[in-house]
UniProtKB/TrEMBL annotation:
This is Response regulator. InterPro entries: CheY-like_superfamily, Homeodomain-like_sf, HptR, HTH_AraC, HTH_AraC-typ_CS, Sig_transdc_resp-reg_receiver, Tscrpt_reg_AraC-type_HTH. It is found in: Cytoplasm. Its main location: cytoplasm. Residues 3-120 form the Response regulatory domain. It comes from the Bacteria.
């Protein structure tokens, strides 16, 4: 006899299941109920339950969360999932394969009892399997997917031991001489947006859903086994096993099926992905080379031409030129960071981005390398400027996400925005560190103006940098130097203008640009307003004097 637990917050649904189930015929002696996942877990501790029927949407703890706990703590417990129509596709793609069956609301008698019978048959079979030999086989079957994953990872990492071949290679079809293999790498470009918008910020659940979609493309001569990369959060790995046919035909089928995967992921979840397909190999031991090919295919995609998802099996050349490296701009970026000028820093980055655009191409690999290089260089600057080490971005995309920075980018424009988000973060952290470690001195503003009079100086630059109000800064400056900030900027520019006008080799147009005026007429007007005569008249007076 068996015990069944129904976990659902809707009493009418629980009552319907009680009425519709052929409990006595199925050998169920007791049917228990719980109104949410937390209560359900406490009942699992109190009673020896054989089968759980769980609704996916519940308060306190939803079905996905509950199933994770059951998988971890009650590995022999069977489950049947109930889902609403709007969530059924999501449920089918995302829930663990150990679920016995899925029921769509409203539950009807036939579907319910068919699912119950399926579960009871599994329970009956387990009770008959008492010998140690059969128990070992059950354990192997339950853990087979994880075991296959470990075998594939060891092959990809080239850590597979040959003496294990006889035991484990048959699990992945390597004992069949007719089989050929290819490795696929799928990179999710908008992982964070999809995770937050569709999977309640659960990256693991998102990756499980992707694996299910990939594996569903299997056919008689085409099998896929996919899993999350152990090193790259955005990366999924799939190993294709094919039997028979010409090599060219197999390559065509691989590309065709991966395009189906890409389209399905976009339709179901809004995923934008790069899919790289490695070379076909006759031996499972060559899967690592195929993986390297697949990675190279993705890394070679030109970000300047990328528009949505892409599937490729060809590696492109690198476009990057050393003179376009971000390290050459770091001294200027450092100066902007120290002065708290995010606009100046973004301007430097914008000029560099224009250079990349005009260089003939900018690959995904170069984009990744540049972003990593930027973070490393900014970390060095931040440490020198006394930013606390725990505030640094160390640890890839995960570190950025923990600091509220999305590392998603699906085209070059979004990539440029990512670099600017990183700059903004460091500007803020460095500004805070300088404020804490160095007392405010209004003379710093005067020094900045003396050295940067040719820039477009705004009081907000100083108020943001020192965390002081605009009015307070203006008051302090006037008390200290007897003039307002704007008036002092004008004085420095006009004093410098006279100095430059004394050099007769300089044209007035050149002088206006050196002082930060974009228009010669505007400079002449400002000079006349300040001195009551024009720059030309000043020069003539100096000559006659």
């Amino acid at each position: 006899m068996y015990k069944v637990l129904i976990i659902d917050d809707e009493e009418p649904l629980r009552e319907a299941i009680r009425i519709l189930g052929d409990w006595e015929k199925l050998g169920v002696e007791r049917v228990l109920e719980a109104t949410d996942g937390k209560i359900g877990l406490s009942m699992l501790e109190e009673h020896k339950i054989d089968l759980v029927i769980v609704d996916m949407k519940m308060p306190e703890m939803n079905g996905v969360e509950l199933l994770r706990v059951i998988e971890r703590e009650y590995q022999d417990l069977l489950t049947i999932v109930i889902s609403g129509y709007n969530d059924f596709e999501y449920t089918r793609q995302a829930i663990h394969a150990k679920v016995v069956d899925y029921l769509l609301k409203p539950v009807n008698r036939r579907d319910l009892n068919e699912a119950l019978l399926k579960a009871i048959n599994v329970l009956e079979a387990k009770r008959k399997m008492k010998s140690e030999h059969i128990s070992k086989n059950i354990t192997l079957n339950l853990s087979l997917p994880k075991l296959k994953e470990k075998v594939y990872i060891s092959l990809i990492e080239r850590s597979f031991k040959n003496q294990m071949n006889e035991t484990f290679l048959p699990l992945i079809g390597a004992d069949d001489a007719m089989n050929r293999f290819a490795t696929v790498v799928l990179r999710v470009l908008n992982l964070e947006a999809v995770s937050v918008g569709r999977f309640h910020n659960d990256v693991d659940l998102l990756r499980f859903a992707i694996a299910n979609v990939i594996d569903e493309i299997a056919s008689d001569h085409f099998h896929c086994f996919s899993f999350a990369s152990p090193k790259e959060e955005r990366e999924m790995i799939a190993v294709i096993t094919m039997k028979g046919g010409y090599r060219e035909d197999m390559v065509y089928r691989s590309v065709h099926q991966m395009k189906r995967v890409s389209a399905t992921l976009a339709k179901l979840f809004g995923i934008v992905a790069l899919v790289g397909i490695g070379d076909l190999c006759d031996e499972a031991l060559d899967i690592a080379d195929s993986y390297d090919n697949a990675k190279a295919s993705i890394n070679g995609v030109d970000l300047l031409k990328l528009n949505g998802s892409a599937v490729t099996n060809e590696a492109a050349q690198s476009f990057h030129k050393d003179n376009l490296s971000i390290s050459s701009r770091i001294p200027m970026i450092r100066s902007a960071l120290e002065n708290g000028s995010i606009q100046h820093a973004k301007g430097i980055m914008g000029d560099l981005a224009k250079s990349w655009k005009s260089s003939g191409g900018f690959s995904v690999w170069e984009a990744d390398r540049t972003a990593r290089e930027l973070v490393v260089l900014l970390n060095d600057i931040a440490l020198e400027l006394k930013v606390s080490p725990e505030r640094l971005l160390i640890g890839g995309d995960h570190a950025l996400r923990m600091k509220g920075i999305s590392a998603d980018y699906t085209d070059f424009g979004q990539y440029e925005s990512l670099l600017n988000r990183i700059l903004e973060y460091y500007v803020e952290e460095i500004r805070k560190a300088l404020t804490v470690n160095r007392p405010f001195d209004v003379g710093d503003i005067k020094s900045f103006i003396d050295n940067h009079y040719f820039e477009d100086i705004k009081i907000s630059v100083f108020s943001d940098k020192y965390f002081l109000s605009r009015e307070y800064l203006m008051k302090l400056f006037k008390q200290e130097f007897g003039t307002g900030i704007h008036e002092y900027v004008q004085k420095v520019r006009m004093d410098k203008a006279k100095e430059l006008l004394d050099d007769r080799s300089l044209k007035i147009q050149d002088i206006s640009e050196m002082l930060g005026y974009k228009d010669k007429n505007y400079f002449s007007k400002a000079f006349r307003n300040y001195y009551s005569y024009s720059p030309t008249e000043y020069r003539e007076n100096r000559m006659n004097g």
